[in-house]
Amino acid sequence: MENIVQKTTETVQKAKKAWAVVSLLFSPYVLVAVLLILICLLVGLIVSFPFLLASDQDKLTEVVPNSYVVAAPSQIDADGTLYFWPVPSIARVSSKFGYRDIGEGIEGHRGIDIANGKEKTENQPIYAMAAGTVTLAGSASGYGRAIYIDHGGGLVTKYGHLSAQMDVSVGDVVQKGQRIGYIGVGLVGRSTGPHLHFQIEMNGSAVNPLDYVQPPGADVPVELSYRSMNIPEVLKFLEKRKSALADVNILALIDAAGQKTNVDPNLLLAITGQEQSFVPKKNNHASEIIKNPWNVFGCWCSGKGATLTTEESAVIAAKTIVKLSADRPSGRNPIEWLSAKDNPKGYYAEHNGWWIGVSKYYKVLLDLRGGT
Question: Any idea where the M23ase beta-sheet core domain is (predicted)?
Fold first, then answer.
């Protein structure tokens, strides 16, 4: 009998606990909280659904003017390298790809606009994004003057609002990073001010240029900005000097570091001439020096500077040039500024004549390019 009473008591207690839980779940406070959460989720879905349904990734991607794009391009050239930013001296995207309103109502913008104020935009040189054949160089509806380049495989680039001074003609075959013309002065074509309209088409359809190119550091003056290295000629030059840097792979790494940072790889190599006499093979430490011929972190011989690869030290040296190039006063020689003691960012080398030696070697290497 006692067992029956005890079990009955336990069952009643469990029932009371279950009822308490049920009462809590269905209390007015809990019901109101759940209802509010459901309403918030529903409102969020209603607001975002039209955009998710009708928009593509290009139209949802924002490019903040006067800022660097953080995401790397999703498309690369056929040779596995990055495409070339068309205006090395300007990193500012003044108008994005997609829908915009420039005072005449909302319209679709089939490219991006690159500009940084009248004085820093007019007559700036522009360069081919990739190798290809020029299909138009002259007057173009809406653009005033433009250059079109067919890169093969359905890929076409268009450069609009240009100066009448052009470096190419229809039928010319151009290389990646080759100068092709200049941004026009004033209002050229349908525009609100000087800028480069840069457009990329794939199989006839406009695509977001920022999927292909990325704005580089724009602190580098145009005189020192990236231009491709003539590796075969540079190789001959270094071989005559019996340099340990006379290696196609090493030169390719230096060129890639320059392209990545918008620094002329010929300048990077010129610095090795001043710092290490281009690393003679007869030097007992040549195999170590070529890993850091720029003496980043103080020296190739000790500390962190002795742990780097050639690729790593080249990129660090190039980034140092970008940093030191900032805030250069008007009229100052851009190479002299890199080692100037009054440079607020610091200086590359302590020796006062450093920049003179670098300038000498830089001119020699530029002469090897045989072009622009």
Answer: 108-209
Each residue's pLDDT tens digit, 23-37: 655 566 656 666 777
CA of 290: how far to CAs of 44, 118, 252, 296, in Å?
57, 43, 14, 12
The amino acid that residue 280 corresponds to is: P
Tell me yes or no: is domain 224-367 CATH 1.20.120: no
For residue 43, with 0-12 CB atoms within 10 Å meaning exposed, 13-18 middle and 19 or more buried, which class applies? exposed
Q: Measured on CA atoms in the order 34, 40, 43, 49, is the torsion positive or negative?
A: negative
Architecture of the domain delimited by 63-216: Distorted Sandwich (2.70)
Hey, what are 147's tokens?
A: 């250059």
41: phi then psi, degrees, rounded to nearest 5: -60, -40
Q: Could you write out the DSSP letters of every residue in 189-222?
A: SS-SSS-EEEEEEETTEEE-GGGT-----S-S-G
Contact 125, 168 (CB under 8 A): no
Q: Where do you find CATH 2.70.70.10 in the chain?
A: 63-216
CA distances from 149 to 73, 77, 146, 198 (A): 20, 15, 10, 12
* pLDDT tens digits for range 59-108: 323 333 333 333 445 677 877 777 899 998 888 887 778 765 555 556 66
Q: What is the pTM of this model?
A: 0.51
325: which residues sit within 8 A by CB, 6+ positions away?
A: 219, 220, 221, 224, 334, 337, 338
Calpha distance 143→164 (Å, rounded):
12
* Element holding 9 (H helix, E strand): helix 2-25
Structure tokens at 212: 């292909």
